[in-house]
Write a structure and sequence with these properties.
Largest sheet: 8 strands, mixed
Number of helices: 10
Structural class: alpha+beta
Helix content: 25-40%
Order of helices and strands: HHEEEEEEEHEEEEHEHEEHEHEEHHH
Shape: globular
CATH superfamily of the largest domain: Zn peptidases
Distance between the termini: 73 Å
Number of strands: 17
């Protein structure tokens, strides 16, 4: 592969990563990054934190955050040869249809299984979820002649791990959400390893995002990351009107849960404009991506300044046209996001003090203000 980030992403894509089963992904990232950062460690919740120390304590610091997990199922019970599969995160309703193919992960063994039963849905809330294309069941069932013992196991969708369509330049993956974000942060850290940066740079890889932002919320509450750090979620987010494939990474100013902070977003916008001045092919978008929540909202709830980056994502959570399908993102968008992460790290210290002053100067038109003074207040009041 021509681009190193695509090699990283293809290797990540091979690793099953249902929520709570992200350890192997974390181990891969740890081994890949340990020679390129000043410090790398797992916190008590299993989140992975990689840290490049900046040259100046006074320079703005940034933490780019992605999650290591993806929706799927977990085996939680067995009676004879019938296994109960618990839904983990938002899953396409087609994943629960009878005879749909799944893969049970038992360490290095990948065991094909099929759905044998989907309980009837009676609640109005769950029925509406199914109308929107999501599986409304908490559990479904499978019959399998395999001794699983007493352990729980993850179950993933029977899809291709990774391939690139050369005609469309689209990356198709079982779990682009959010291994694409992980690969962007990883490659940025690797590329920056031999460069001086003035502010601290954290790459954070969290757990159990798909089941309630759990890893990021636990990390934010612990305040391991200094509270003055600018938090930037790096996500994939479902394509919506105004968020287009091939138009570059999206500067995300909000999600389904909250709107984000201008004080952090201004660094992203300035760095994106700086990249455009240097590279005419660089493009970016700016949108409120409200289809889902992201980890910026978890950090915001604990008092951090936050913003976000997002890649337009097709077949979000594998919800294809009438069946379970691979998610897809654009190679161009992925590369633009990696470039922007690096640009923020390299140039943040040079722009922190004067961005507001620059913005104020664009608002001041002395001739226009002079005219307002001459006109004065409305007469006769």
């Amino acid at each position: 592969m021509e681009k190193p980030i695509l090699q990283i992403l293809s290797e990540l894509a091979k690793i099953p990563n249902v929520s709570y089963y992200e350890q192997e992904v974390g181990n891969y990232i740890y081994k890949r990054l340990r020679d390129f950062v000043d410090k790398i460690y797992f916190d008590e919740f299993g989140n992975l934190i990689a840290h490049r120390k900046g040259l100046k304590d006074s320079a703005p610091s940034f933490a780019f955050v992605s999650h290591m997990d993806h929706p799927g199922f977990e085996v939680i019970d067995s009676k004879k040869s019938t296994y109960t599969l618990k839904t983990m995160g938002g899953v396409s309703k087609y994943a629960g249809t009878e005879n749909n193919s799944l893969i049970l992960i038992d360490e290095d063994n990948k065991i094909p299984i099929t759905v044998t039963k989907k309980p009837e849905i009676t609640s109005e809330f769950d029925l509406n979820r199914e109308k929107d294309g999501w599986l409304g069941n908490d559990v479904i069932f499978s019959t399998i002649d395999y001794d699983l013992g007493d352990k729980n196991f993850q179950v993933i969708f029977d899809l291709e791990d990774f391939f690139i369509d050369k005609k469309t330049n689209l990356i198709h993956m079982r779990s682009a959400d959010d291994l694409a974000g992980c690969s962007s942060i990883m490659q940025a850290l690797i590329n920056l390893s031999n460069q001086n940066i003035e502010g601290d740079f954290y790459g954070i890889f969290t757990r159990a995002e798909e089941v309630g932002l759990l890893g990021s919320a636990a990390l934010a509450e612990s305040e391991i990351i200094p509270i003055e750090t600018n938090i930037v979620s790096v996500e994939t987010s479902s394509i919506i009107p105004g968020a287009n494939l091939y138009d570059g990474v999206i500067i995300r100013n909000g999600d389904r849960i909250s709107t984000f902070d201008n004080s952090t977003e201004k660094f992203l916008i300035h760095s994106a404009n700086n990249l455009q001045n240097k590279n005419k092919d660089f493009k970016y978008q700016r949108q409120l991506m409200s289809a889902g929540g992201c980890e910026a909202s978890a950090f915001k709830a604990f008092g951090y300044k936050v913003s976000g980056l997002a890649y337009p994502l097709g077949n979000w959570h594998n919800k294809g046209a009438g069946r379970v399908e691979e998610e897809y993102i654009s190679v161009f968008d992925l590369l633009s996001g990696q470039s922007l992460i690096e640009e923020v790290a390299k140039f943040s210290s040079t722009i922190s003090g004067n961005l507001n002053e620059k913005f104020r100067s664009t608002l001041i038109n002395q001739d226009g203000i002079k005219r307002l003074r001459q006109l004065g207040s409305p007469k006769g009041i």
